[in-house]
Batch of 2 targets.
Target 1
Amino acid sequence: MRIEDDIKLDFNDVLLKPKRSILSSRKEVILEREFSFYHSEKKWKGIPIMTSNMASCGTFEMAEVLSEYKIITTFHKYYSIEEYKKFFKNFNNPDYVGYTLGIRERDIKQLNEMIENNLIQNFSFICIDVPNGYLERFLETIKIIRKLCPKHIIIAGNVVSNEMTEEIILNGADIVKVGIGSGSVCTTRKMTGVGYPQLSAVIECSDAAHGISNEKSVGKIISDGGIVNPCDFAKAFCAGADFVMAGSVFSGFEQSGGQTIIKNGKKFKEYYGSSSDKAMLENYGLKDNHRASEGRYVLIPHKGDLNHFLQDLFGSLRSTGTYIGARQIKEFSKRATFIRVNRQLNSSLEQYDINSKK
Ligand code: 5GP
């Protein structure tokens, strides 16, 4: 047994120190980034934000809105080949969609079908998603998928430590998804005791990924989970995240997945963890006896139209840029000084009140 007793931090353990700035307006802050990748030949340009690959937000309807803003939607795992065929008849924006799969046989079988049906070329990103990225089988599967899809930008996760971040990139991924236990509907920390404070995970894993380089580029990371307030996106970029993935903040909108439910005259939308009993029953028709639920099922007050939220989010990121003197998201981590504070902001799914905007 060993104890690591240096301090590890979450987003709400810190604030950003304002810095002298030559920017005169928020408009000057550029939110788009341009990336090349460690393995893939593809180049990508857009706002480096993505929805979680969850049934409640990784949907076709979200992609239709978010792709217009150059934001990525990683689809949930449960769309069929037929559903993809229908969707891609009218959607052609590969840079802003990701195909998600796990590491089971049925996942590789469906990927092969996607390739045979010429559907996989509709995606720039492939996201290999497992709750626990520390399994030997996970690394083997990344290698297999890199061989099947040599040109795609491969995302793989989730992990929270520097050595595994390096392993994943060296085994074929371009981007490592970072975060265990930080999700708003995740109960992994409660059920298993396993997890890592998200801000520190991002600082440590981005440092590891950016240290792996070749003639094309460096390794990259996504901060996944734990975004509660708009400022958390900025804090994640400041900590070194190349991309930020979020679920709950993209849920509850007209365009999100999940049923709309009316309770006491109020409108709600469902949001549930991919490992919740609800997800197991809904998508596989049963819950494995050997596994406990590691996700919650919640109702989010209906937030209306996604477009309102996006304007607020972009405004908040631009404002952070002006406060810390960063002209573009790329500069956030270079300009950032974090100050440790007593927790300032409550973590709550209802914290961001979109209704005040309407
Ligand atoms: P949020 O943005 O809501 O805080 O977190 C979204 C992230 O939570 C997802 O991208 C995913 O990594 C994680 N997640 C989603 N469902 C579950 C679940 O059922 N259990 C756990 N442990 N994590 C989940």
Target 2
Amino acid sequence: MLGQMMQQPLLISTLIVHAERHHPEREIVSRRVEGDIHRTTYKELASRSRRMAKALARLGVKAGDRVATLAWNGYRHMELYYAVSGSGAVLHTVNPRLHPDQIVYIADHAEDQVLFFDLTFLPLVAAVAGRTKTVRHWVAMSDRAHVPAEAAAKIPGLLFYEDLVAAEDDRYDWPSFDENSASSLCYTSGTTGNPKGVLYSHRSTLLHTFAAALPDALNCSANDVILPVVPMFHVNAWGLPYVACLTGAKMVYPGAALDGKSLYELFENEQVTVSAGVPTVWQGLLAYVQANGLKFSSMRRTVIGGSACPPAMLRTFGDEFDVHVLHAWGMTEMSPLGTVCSFKPAHLKQTQEQRYEVMAKQGRAVFGVDMKIVDEAGQELAFGGEASGDLLVSGPWIVTEYFKGEGGNPLVTDEAGRGWFPTGDVAKIDADGYMQITDRSKDVIKSGGEWIGSIDLENIAMAHPAVAMAACIAAPHPKWDERPLLVVVKKPGAEVTREELLAFFDGKIAKWWTPDDVVFVDAIPLGATGKMQKNKLREQFKDHKLPTA
Ligand code: AMP
């Protein structure tokens, strides 16, 4: 017997329709790359999204076509979240910090048709515009007056965002279609080979949005003022631009200015109540606030994830600023939310000291995500044990395969036939269900919340005539959490210096990917299958002091 309830597909457009109808005057404030603070409302944002949806159709964008962005957090980017996905196309948020060669690779792989970009990225776009295969239109996310004619001339057929919006009216009905249709695409760097695409659907995004907004998850409401520092190109700013419309919260977007002073000004001027970002960003903000003897007058909680939040940071936020840290864990493959470290009733009776210990864990699964840890034989380990295991997850906003089937089937199937995604993280789960990452089996390096592909770096080093073997590992860094350390075995009789090797990276990768240091060793430990045992190297160099510039 079937239920007798309305059949309405879960579509991203319903979020903006809701926000326009129920929170029309609520503000969206953005620090623009043009230099000013821009203010708009959900009503205006919804109207401009509809106009942009019409403009996309006029540019020939059809359902399922990929439309890319190279952009900071701002209202135009949010308009594209709704205009592109809402009209049935797929929003591909590109990480502008990638090397131009990688941007060309993923734009080609995604078969992007149109690419929208913030003015900051004009030189980058000028460098890649002649090299991509499928991009038909390049759109500067500004008006004509702000784009220098000289720079514009370097991009053939350049279009301007404000021209496109101005040319349309907002009479547009969001189309209805299968909720399983693709809505957005995000590339993650795998440990081997090229970045892989994770293709979200309208359904997965809506379910993730419901769960993310819950009190024990990101805890957002209409009364909040949310400032996502996490970029809109990093797993859709952890879903916050969608949570915004679901709740009717005021949104504050920081644009390109992510330094402590600029962020603090926005926090205070806009009376931000909740924020979200990787630990590195908060280091800069805390340093600024502490150095200037400042306090947060409105911010009461912040979500920290992407890398483990250092326990000292939890305490500084709590003890000095009365800001509660919500430690969260997730992945691009998980839309991204998996766990949030919010308390259960028993914790409320504990001392602050005991609570800080809980808060250092990555937290408990949000409803919708099931997780388990398994041993090397794939046997599930019970919650509450001492052993760590490989962390597997399952749920309706977790990837089943990468875009275009890249890398084959990533899932592990259990005895009941259920698919589980192996996260690559190694974790413990306590008796209360709180998960703590103890290690990660992947060897990529996370600098300031951004991956650096160790294999790419090794491949370059190995191309040097004096290098016999090279391993790139993460070494602890006071500012960026981790930076690459290159471990090298020289060819017999060959000579090369640290400086010569580092100079060898120039022009081959994005500058910030260059290793911070090189150490020369006689041999690199190898495992049974001939793979370099980087865990052993990490252990060997865990106290290595990187040069600080
Ligand atoms: P990404 O897909 O770039 O978001 O990276 C996902 C990976 O980041 C996870 O598999 C973890 O290794 C790591 N990660 C994310 N959040 C945390 C956290 N709170 N603590 C430790 N590692 C984390």
